[in-house]
Amino acid sequence: MARAKEPKKTALETVMKELKSHANPKNVEGMARFGISAKNTLGISIPILRNMAKKAGTDHDLALKLWATGVHEARILACLVDDPKAVTERQMENWVNEFDSWDVCDQCCGSLFDKTECAHRRAIEWANRKEEFVKRAGFAMMAVLAWHDKEAEDESFLKFLPIIVKGATDERNFVKKAVNWALRQIGKRNRALNMKAIETSKKIQLIDSKSARWIASDALRELTGAAVQKRLKS
């Protein structure tokens, strides 16, 4: 009697099997030291995930299924294979509300969300929210847009600066670091924005807040430094 053929694995099953084959418990321990939860985490490095994304190609349906697994690395991979043109605002809101670590937040904002048509508006909306990782996502979006969106006018980034001032008093580590990141990236975009970011940093420096003082001093150190000034002049 002929043996029954095994059912063909779905794309999701194939990818999840490969993900699990790269699991590294020692890496999970190391990630925990950097504030990444060990829950549903396999300990896979970003270079491995990027190679897997290249093999998988752009696949919106696969991205949605990977995200739904709740596995840490599967969610990062989802951000790498999804199609920005297929991403809806509802999807963005659902995903941002499920962020539970800074690396998933930053990878999602820097690899996917920043390429959507509503990216600038969402950055402002999320930066004004209270939830820790939603708020981080808002400022992370500002940072990656300043880095990646070469076509945007300066006015788009000037709109971010008052929100950065407002967010500078948030003492939560993952938020204040994103506020600082946004301020520095805007200030490194061009000479005009550099001057505005330095001006904003000095304004933040006067706020009676430990977080604000750290954000301002760290940003000023880089934005007024020789390396940044030399690059902007050239």
Summarize the structure.
It is built from 15 helices and no strands. It has helices spanning 11-21, 25-33, 46-56, 60-68, 72-81, 89-96, 102-111, 119-127, 132-148, 154-158, 161-167, 173-187, 191-205, 210-223, 226-233. The chain has 234 residues and is an all-alpha fold.
Describe this entry's structure for a reader.
The protein is mostly helical and 234 residues long. It folds into two domains: 10-92, no CATH class; 118-234, Alpha Horseshoe (Leucine-rich Repeat Variant), CATH 1.25.10.10. Helix content is 68%, strand content 0%. It has helices at 11-21, 25-33, 46-56, 60-68, 72-81, 89-96, 102-111, 119-127, 132-148, 154-158, 161-167, 173-187, 191-205, 210-223, 226-233. It is globular and about 60 Å long.
Keywords, please?
single chain, 234 residues, mainly alpha, Leucine-rich Repeat Variant, 2 domains, 15 helices
List the helices and strands and how they pair.
Elements: H1 11-21, H2 25-33, H3 46-56, H4 60-68, H5 72-81, H6 89-96, H7 102-111, H8 119-127, H9 132-148, H10 154-158, H11 161-167, H12 173-187, H13 191-205, H14 210-223, H15 226-233
Q: How many distinct domains?
A: 2
Known CATH architecture of the largest domain: Alpha Horseshoe
End-to-end Cα distance: 76 Å
Question: CATH first level of the largest domain: which class?
Answer: Mainly Alpha
Question: What is CATH's topology name of the largest domain?
Answer: Leucine-rich Repeat Variant
Helix-strand category: mainly alpha
Work out the helicity level.
55-70%
Proportion of residues in β-strands? under 5%
Count the DSSP helices.
15
Query: Biggest β-sheet: count, sense, barrel?
Result: none
The number of distinct β-strands equals 0
